[in-house]
Design a protein that fits this description.
about 400 residues, Fumarylacetoacetate hydrolase, domain 2, five-stranded antiparallel sheet, binds calcium ion
Length: about 400
């Protein structure tokens, strides 16, 4: 598809009709509604669906994407076809133009009500780097790592939309050199650049979702920043895993890129033949995603992690989540884990970029290790589009406020 929208500025913006991400917006005095993004405009789907007498119009007069996400792939596809027609056919301008508004003139809200939130650890490079730092005398990867996608349950109630400030968390921490734990603001506050995947169609308790059924259940992709307090995490995580070092905030993009917009981004996984995975984790064909990530700290790009280097695929993460019969619900969110590539400038956390704080790096003209109060972090994402160019996935921004 090489068609472009008639909306001025859409072509080449990363938000042409080969993308069409969904979000929820509000204007003062109006209730929130579902929108699609085209160029630097939001298209109010509730208005055009009602005017065009689309039978699913009630799905868009909503304050979350959940009803639309639950409607399933046939509705997702027919909606995408309908919206593409509206935005490419000049004769639809009279219908559509009154429902457009500059994205800067509206407030973007958390796009869906988050169900359960699970975070994985799917990058071999990230897991190896962390293993080398935390367990320098042992094998970097623990014995289970290449047999199953390791994950933990996070806190869905503190998932916030891009642009939300993050208050520096307080908690217990104890450095190996200290005799007793102390309480206070985290001194090793970090980011994790990740992708998030959101469930549209639920599964039944007792059933498993096969890797081949990934696209029947998964609605789309968001950018995700898993804010992490490394000092709190290092003291609390043994033996049950991350807890308060992670649960204070997780930021996601305001825009959800539907899977259909990523049709040209699928790529082979780096390889899972040593060891081979169990049957329920096998995938047919390209299961990885060729998405470029950029980590921007105080206006400077400090890393470019490539998602295509991830060891475990999103389909395997969903299959593993349900292999014991646990069900998934509309709005369930899972994070990929920090995206880190093999090179130093491809590391998706400050922990890795500064090698545990021992090797400061430069950003904004200063030497840096962990986050300082006032720092702004922006995560950007792009992928090959189906039209031959690139699409720009929703960015994730957040600024650190001092501890309270
Ligand atoms: Ca994480």
């Amino acid at each position: 598809m090489t068609a472009h929208s008639w909306v001025e500025g859409a072509a080449g913006s990363g938000f042409d009709v080969d993308h069409l991400p969904y979000g929820v917006f509000a204007r003062s005095g109006e209730r929130p509604r579902v929108a699609v993004r085209i160029g630097d405009q939001v298209l109010d789907l509730s208005v055009v669906a009602a005017a065009d007498m689309v039978d699913t119009h009630a799905l868009f007069d909503q304050s979350t994407l959940n009803p639309f996400m639950a409607a399933g792939p046939a509705v997702w596809e027919s909606t995408r076809t309908w919206v593409t027609g509206l935005l490419t056919d000049q004769t639809e301008r009279d219908l559509v133009e009154p429902a457009l508004a500059p994205v800067d003139s509206v407030t973007m809200l958390l796009p869906f009500e988050v169900g359960d939130y699970v975070d994985f650890y799917a990058s071999e490079h990230h897991a190896s780097n962390v293993g080398r730092m935390f367990r320098p005398d042992a094998e970097p990867l623990l014995p289970n790592w290449k047999h199953l996608p390791v994950g933990y349950h996070g806190r869905s109630g503190t998932v916030v939309v891009s642009g939300t400030d993050v208050v520096r968390p307080c908690g217990q921490r104890k450095a190996p050199t200290e005799d007793e734990p102390t309480y206070g603001p985290s001194q090793r506050l970090d980011i994790e650049a990740e992708l998030g995947f959101v469930v549209g169609v639920p599964s039944a308790m007792g059933d498993r979702v096969a890797t081949a059924d990934f696209a029947r259940h998964t609605f789309g992709v968001v950018g995700l920043n898993d804010w992490s307090a490394r000092d709190i995490q290092a003291w609390e995580y043994v033996p049950l895993g991350p807890f308060l070092g992670k649960s204070f905030a997780t930021s996601i993009s305001a825009w959800v890129t539907p899977l259909a917009a990523l049709d040209a981004a699928w790529t082979d996984l780096p390889g899972q033949d040593d060891p081979e995975v169990l049957d329920y984790l096998r995938v047919d064909g390209p299961a990885g995603l060729d998405i470029e990530v950029e980590v921007v700290l105080e206006g400077e790009v400090v890393a470019r992690p490539p998602y295509r280097t991830m060891y475990w695929s999103p389909a395997q993460m969903l299959a593993h989540t349900t292999v014991n019969g646990a069900s998934v619900r509309t709005g369930d969110l899972w994070g990929s884990g920090t995206v880190s590539g093999p090179e130093r400038d491809q590391r998706g956390s400050l922990l890795e970029l500064s090698w545990g704080g021992k090797e400061p790096f430069t950003a904004g003209g200063r030497e840096r290790t962990f986050l300082e109060d006032g720092d702004e972090v922006v995560l950007r994402y792009s992928a090959p589009g189906t039209g031959g160019g690139r699409i720009t996935l929703g960015e994730v921004t957040g600024r650190i406020l001092p501890a309270r």
